[in-house]
Structures are given as structure tokens and as C-alpha cells.
């Protein structure tokens, strides 16, 4: 008698905070392309239509010192409810109402247990990998411009 083995669940558990961050930082064109590939077509209603506003961005001296107001940044937010009852939020930098609404829909779908693995594996993980690649490229570019200063002592 053969025992059939079910494939192991390879989905990495990602928290809501993490996927909202990934969606907020990713380019809209890539989110849209990956979304289209998924072929999901959920029905939703707007709880809060996409709105454009400003938020104060804070910085910290030395990266961990006292906070100070750096300046304002434009953000767009939206909230949706799927016909299944799950609600989602989308906050994105800039003025893209379509991106905020799509991110809210994706957030709601990621809370749906039967869709979670598919959306994480085919949308969130690729977006996360792209963001990590961009960060690595920026770090390498910055490292190439690093200048080491040293003092030369003359004739003792």
C-alpha cells in the first residue's frame, strides 16, 4: 500500500505589518502586474474612498537619538470591504488612488485563509525580493562612493 505524501506548505508566514509595508514601498506597476497574473477578481466596496493627504515625517539624530520633524510627505489611503466580509487598508506614498485601493484589496485578501498562501507566494514574496534587490543595489552604489580619510604625518 502506497502512502501518498501531501506537499509541504512552503508559504513563509508574513505578518500584516510586513505585507502592508511591502505593498506601500513597492512600485505600482509591479504590484499591478503581479496582481493581474494572480487572476483574482474579488468583489469589494469602498469603506473609505481613496483620499490624498499629508503626513509629518520624523527623523532621528544619529539614527536613534532625539526625534525631529523632517518635513511633510504626500500619502494616499483607502479602505475596502470584500463581499466575504474581510476589510483591508492601503496607505501609499504619493498621489496614486488606484495603488491605495489595490493595496487595500490585497490586504483584505491576505486576511482570507484560503487565498493567503497563493497571494503571499505569487505577489508579496516577489515584491519583497525586488525591494531587497533595490536596497542591495543602493548600498553597493553608496559603498562605491565611500571616501576614507586619513592623516599623514610629515617628517618627524
What does this structure look like?
The chain is of the alpha+beta class and 156 residues long. The protein contains four helices and three strands, in the order H-H-E-E-E-H-H. It has helices at residues 16-25, 28-38, 97-110, 113-144, and strands at residues 44-60, 67-82, 87-93. The longest helix is centred in the last third of the chain and has 32 residues, at 113-144. The chain is elongated and about 80 Å long. It starts with 15 loop residues before the first helix and ends in a 12-residue tail after the last helix. The model is unreliable at 1-9 (pLDDT under 50).
Quick take:
This protein is an alpha+beta fold and 156 residues long. It has four helices and three strands.
Radius of gyration: 21 Å
Which residues form runs of ≥5 with pLDDT under 50?
Answer: 1-9
The general outline is elongated
Structural class given helices, strands, pairing? alpha+beta
How much helix is in the residues? 40-55%
Distance between the termini: 88 Å
Question: Approximately what portion of the residues adopt beta-strand conformation?
Answer: 25-35%
Number of helices: 4
- How do the strands of the widest beta sheet line up side by side? 1-2-3
H/E topology pattern: HHEEEHH
For the sheet with most strands, the description reads: 3 strands, antiparallel
The average pLDDT score comes to 88
How many distinct beta strands? 3
Amino acid at each position: 500500500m502506497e502512502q501518498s505524501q501531501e506537499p509541504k506548505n512552503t508559504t513563509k508566514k508574513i505578518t500584516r505589518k510586513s505585507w502592508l509595508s511591502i505593498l506601500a514601498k513597492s512600485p505600482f506597476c509591479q504590484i499591478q502586474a503581479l496582481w493581474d497574473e494572480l487572476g483574482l477578481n474579488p468583489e469589494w466596496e469602498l469603506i473609505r474612498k481613496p483620499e490624498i493627504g499629508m503626513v509629518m515625517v520624523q527623523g532621528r539624530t544619529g539614527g536613534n537619538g532625539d526625534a525631529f520633524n523632517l518635513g511633510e510627505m504626500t500619502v494616499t489611503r483607502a479602505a475596502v470591504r470584500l463581499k466575504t466580509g474581510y476589510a483591508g487598508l492601503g496607505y501609499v506614498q504619493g498621489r496614486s488612488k488606484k495603488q491605495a485601493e489595490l493595496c487595500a484589496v490585497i490586504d483584505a485578501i491576505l486576511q482570507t485563509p484560503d487565498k493567503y498562501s497563493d497571494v503571499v507566494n505569487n505577489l508579496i514574496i516577489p515584491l519583497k525580493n525586488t525591494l531587497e534587490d533595490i536596497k542591495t543595489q543602493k548600498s553597493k552604489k553608496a559603498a562605491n562612493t565611500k571616501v576614507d580619510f586619513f592623516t599623514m604625518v610629515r617628517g618627524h
